Amino acid sequence: MRILVVEDEARAGDYLKQGLTEAGFVVDVARDGHTGLHLAAEQAYDLVVLDVMLPGLDGWTVLRRLRQTGVGRQVPVLFLSARDALADRVHGLELGADDYLVKPFAFAELLARVRTLLRRGPPREDDVLTLDDLRLNVPARTATRAGQRLTLSAREFNLLHLLMRRQGEVLSRSEIASHVWDMNFDSDTNVVDVAIRRLRLRINDPVPGRLIHAVRGMGYVCELRP
């Protein structure tokens, strides 16, 4: 699962990223409100951990604007703040936060709250994703086409999973690289294009016919075309 931490204090942000990463999450960190809002609105996160006192836009404003966007209406938000007044906690919850944790805090408590929010977050995706005769069993991490098992590496499975759960959406190379490789896309590298070519070969081996298509100048889309 992917978590966005919006925290302007470098040490605190690095501490949260290290701890959550060690707990098995993919973590992005934003150092100011504007960057945090942009990332949260543009990318699919499972949870946002949001400081209240931020440069640029404060956490209250970030949450308010986030709840006005399509993606941001559903993502769980956990406020972090040194402001422990009851009025502040109530204000955060009334704005649409799902939880409010006062600084300083024990990391074990933060992790417990994160896991609780993720369990009760937006409806989970289907365990089995399908497109024509391509079938992806997410919990079992298996894929078949026309009933025949596909041999996929862990990275190829993650790439196919991303494409299939976002069927019909054109995904840019930078977004694919961010989700599958947890890296910023470098225009001088063709890692995404090479991986897509290999994945197409795996999928088309038992049954000819492309289900992953390039969209010139934009990226790739997974969909059934006549």
TrEMBL record:
UniProt DNA-binding residue ranges: 126-224
Entry keywords, A to Z: Cadmium, DNA-binding, Phosphoprotein, Transcription, Transcription regulation, Two-component regulatory system
SUPFAM superfamilies (UniProt xref): CheY-like
Residues in OmpR/PhoB-type domain copies: 126-224
Annotated InterPro entries: CheY-like_superfamily, CusR-like, OmpR/PhoB-type_DNA-bd, Sig_transdc_resp-reg_receiver, WalR-like, WH-like_DNA-bd_sf
Domain Response regulatory, residue spans: 2-118
Any GO CC annotation of this UniProt entry: cytosol
Short name of any one Pfam family annotated for the protein: Response_reg
PANTHER family the record matches: REGULATOR OF RPOS (PTHR48111), TRANSCRIPTIONAL REGULATORY PROTEIN CUSR-RELATED (PTHR48111:SF41)
Name the UniProt record assigns to this protein: DNA-binding response regulator
Source organism of this protein record: Roseateles puraquae
